[in-house]
Specification:
Elements (H helix, E strand, L loop, with lengths): L1 E2 L13 E3 L3 E2 L18 E8 L14 E5 L2 E3 L3 E6 L22 E3 L8 E6 L9 H14 L6 E6 L4 E5 L2 H8 L10 H12 L13 H23 L8 E6 L16 H18 L1 E7 L4 H11 L19 H7 L4 H20 L5 E3 L3 H11 L2 E7 L10 E8 L5 E3 L3 E3 L19 H8 L9 E5 L4 E2 L2 E10 L7 E3 L2 E13 L5 E14 L3 H7 L1 E9 L2 E11 L4 E11 L6 E9 L26 E2 L4 E9 L6 E9 L4 E8 L8 E9 L6 E11 L4 E11 L1
Parallel strand pairs: 9-10, 9-12, 12-13, 13-14, 29-35
Antiparallel strand pairs: 1-33, 2-24, 3-24, 4-15, 4-17, 5-6, 5-16, 7-15, 8-19, 10-11, 16-18, 19-21, 20-21, 21-25, 22-23, 23-24, 23-26, 26-27, 28-30, 30-33, 31-32, 31-34, 34-35
């Protein structure tokens, strides 16, 4: 069956909700974004304890630990053992790598608390372009082979690109594939250039002017530290779990300990202390992976030594590369020794940030095994909390030591933290909302889903209005955690739902707010418990990549839940299957707050469930784009999850009569199917049999 989008349908729905008007998105109210206020009251420290064979020791109690801050004992006021199942290690061959075409049309927060949390930072400002492929390979391997199904990962480049936390491996891999290193040449090569071009006599490099690239080097190092600090600060609100920042970099190559001709030294020293402070506050462990190792030194030596007279290889005066010039430069402290010093500086900064935050530095040899070690570290650990000393000088380093009252064990934790020069770093969220309830604003500012209420969300572009796609978003909540006010034979509660779409730079593209006053007969409680609470909003989005942030606040129990959804809105293109949604006859009888059949995008409200009764009739919607009236076929292929064919329908794509989009629906009587799990796939195929587009999802029949 085909529908012109925007048609209405006739049905009788028992509306049990009093719904306030849906409010369109506005500019973010910056004053209402939650921020960190005041000093540190409880500092969390995660501790990894292993035996002599490297196995985790899991039978310790709080009495087995002693914690010292700058040599003084501190009371351990919070203690827990965290044990998460480690994901099965997949082979490098890719034969058993989970497919990346999973269905992300439905997102939930019910398992996010059981997953690990990784911040993957690809330091394009400090990776040589020649090692870009190695970094992409390393990051892809981590995403495809080392993660569990509920692990949350963000991917960012230090130059500014950011992909927020998601479980969508395909989206993360697509971001990784864009990586290209653009590290500056080594300080030694730049100073050799400056020496050659200045015409000054030989001698110590300190006799020469600071080359322009060194100022850029200082800015890049400072920007990278600020970026790392901001990542840590963003995670301060995520409490009670270990957070791993995986930093793939060849290191910060600016010697902040040397003030001679280095104007950024003091700023970088302050920012290093600030990163350590913010990592301690957020309980973030930094794991530094160096994809270059000593190969970068060899590359630079080749540039110095392989430049015969008249053939400059790095754009400097021929005389520098005349025979014997490399030795003359080394005599002037500008050769092998200075190159090794450059690398030592970069590695020292890597180690300082990683080891002082409880992580580690891994260099070159077997980085894949190192990534597995990171997953293990974030799967089993002890979490200790203590109140630190408040009277400290700004910038003063506080050493932390954790001892275990058992022989033959190895203890690994952060070595300490620095109090930031300004009293308390603020946590600034890039996610601003127009939600009115403070509880909703707090949930929306979190970098990861909030699990106070179990939510499910379904969203897909399913219509067009001029240049913008119409995106219906439906959210459902389990109401067993709701607290109803019962009086006069009725039950009452207030619910606020906020749905917003953000671009990846944090800009709010559109949002809707639903405020629902529940007033139901007391006898309806059992039905509501069975069906759950459902609400719906409609966003208008231009083509692009978005993260939907959906939050629900229930006032009776003062509980909040939130879900993050990755959404792609493709541009209109003939032969494209853009959106897909599911509904059913039985599910459509359940009231949905905010669903208006007059201006609805779909004839029936979409559902978040993917499990249906055999007595039900499933309705599958797919959005077809064919403004140019091109000839192609539309295929629906339904199979069991083990590949047995169940239903196959192939038709010529219908005419859209000049409309930009057309809604195609298929109805499936589930009584004809056995109980079990099925996969349904829609394909657009041209007349030569080539696949133009595909959409698929799974559902279960009970």
């Amino acid at each position: 069956m085909y529908h012109r989008l925007g048609c209405s349908f006739s049905a009788s729905l028992l509306v049990l909700f009093i719904l306030a008007p849906i409010v369109g998105g506005q500019e973010a109210d910056q004053d209402r974004i939650p921020r960190f206020r005041g000093g540190v009251r409880l500092l969390l420290v995660d501790v990894i304890v292993t035996d002599q064979d490297g196995r985790f020791v899991s039978d310790l109690n709080v009495e087995d630990f002693e914690l010292y801050e700058s040599g003084k004992p501190r009371d351990i006021t919070a203690f827990s053992l965290i044990e998460l199942p480690e994901p099965a290690r997949r082979s490098k061959s890719g034969a058993d790598v989970a497919p990346l075409s999973e269905d992300y049309a439905v997102a939930t927060n019910d398992a996010t608390a059981s997953g690990r949390l990784f911040v993957l930072v690809l330091d394009d400002l400090h990776v040589d372009a020649r090692r870009s492929g190695r970094v992409r390979e390393l990051a892809r391997g981590f995403l495809e082979r080392s993660l569990g199904p509920h692990d949350l990962v963000s991917v960012s480049f230090t130059s500014g690109l950011y992909r927020p936390f998601t479980m969508n491996r395909a989206a993360l891999v697509a971001t990784v594939n864009r990586f290209m290193g653009r590290m500056l040449r080594s300080s030694t090569l730049e100073r050799l250039d400056a020496q050659s071009q200045s015409g000054l006599p030989g001698g110590s490099i300190e006799n020469y002017v600071t080359p322009p690239a060194e100022r850029e080097r200082g800015r890049r190092n400072l920007d990278t530290l600020k970026f790392l600090g901001a990542q840590c600060a963003f995670l301060e609100t995520v409490r009670g779990r270990r957070k791993a920042l995986v930093w793939i970099s060849e290191g910060l190559d600016y010697d902040a300990e040397n003030f001679n001709g280095r104007p950024y030294s003091e700023s970088i020293r302050r920012e290093l202390a600030s990163v350590l402070d913010r990592a301690a506050r957020a309980n973030v462990a930094i794991y530094a992976l160096n994809p270059g190792g000593l190969s970068s030194v060899a590359d630079d030596l080749i540039q110095i030594a392989s430049g015969p007279a008249g053939v400059p290889t790095v754009g400097v005066n021929d005389s520098v590369y005349a025979p014997g010039a490399a030795f003359a430069a080394e005599d002037a402290m500008l050769g092998t020794a200075s190159l090794l010093s450059d690398r030592a500086t970069a590695l020292r900064n890597l180690r300082r940030l990683s080891e002082l935050t409880g992580g580690m530095t891994l260099t070159n040899n077997d980085l894949e095994a190192g990534l597995d070690r990171i997953v293990s570290d974030t799967s089993r650990y002890y979490l200790l909390g203590f109140s630190p000393e408040t009277e400290r000088e700004p910038g003063e380093f506080q050493r932390i030591e954790v001892r275990v009252k058992r022989d033959g064990v190895d203890v690994r934790t952060r070595h300490g933290y620095s109090t930031a020069p300004d009293a308390s770093p603020k946590t600034v969220s890039v996610w601003g909302s127009t939600a009115s309830a403070p509880e909703l604003q707090e949930a929306l500012a979190q970098p990861v889903p909030v699990t106070g209420l179990a939510l499910r969300v379904a969203a897909a572009p399913m219509g067009q209005d001029g240049e913008t796609a119409l995106v219906p978003v439906v959210v459902s909540s389990d109401v067993t955690a709701f607290h109803f006010d019962e009086r006069d034979g009725k039950i009452y509660d207030d619910v606020e739902v906020w749905i917003g779409a953000f671009r990846y730079d944090g800009e709010l593209a559109d949002s809707v707010t639903s405020r629902v006053a529940l007033a139901l007969p007391a006898g309806a409680r059992n039905q509501l418990t069975r069906d759950g609470f459902r609400a719906m909003g409609k966003l208008r989005l231009e083509p692009g990549s978005y993260q939907l942030r959906v939050a629900l606040y229930e006032s009776g129990a003062d509980r909040t839940g939130s879900v993050l959804v990755d959404l792609e809105v493709p541009a209109l293109k003939a032969g494209l299957l853009r959106g897909m949604a599911l509904s059913s006859v039985m599910e459509s009888r359940i009231p949905v707050a905010g669903y208006n059949r007059v201006d609805a995008v779909l004839p029936m409200p979409p559902v978040t469930t993917r499990t249906f009764d055999r007595a039900d009739e499933l309705i599958l919607y797919v959005e077809l784009i064919n403004p140019d009236e091109k000839d192609f076929n539309l295929v629906m292929d339904m199979r069991t999850v083990d590949g047995r064919p169940v239903m196959y329908v192939e038709d010529k794509a219908p005419s859209s009569d000049g409309e930009p989009v057309l809604l195609v629906s298929r109805r499936v009587a589930l009584s004809d199917l056995e109980s079990g799990e099925y996969q349904v796939t829609f394909r657009a195929i041209d007349l030569d049999g080539d696949e133009l587009a595909v959409r698929q999802t799974r559902f279960r029949v009970r």
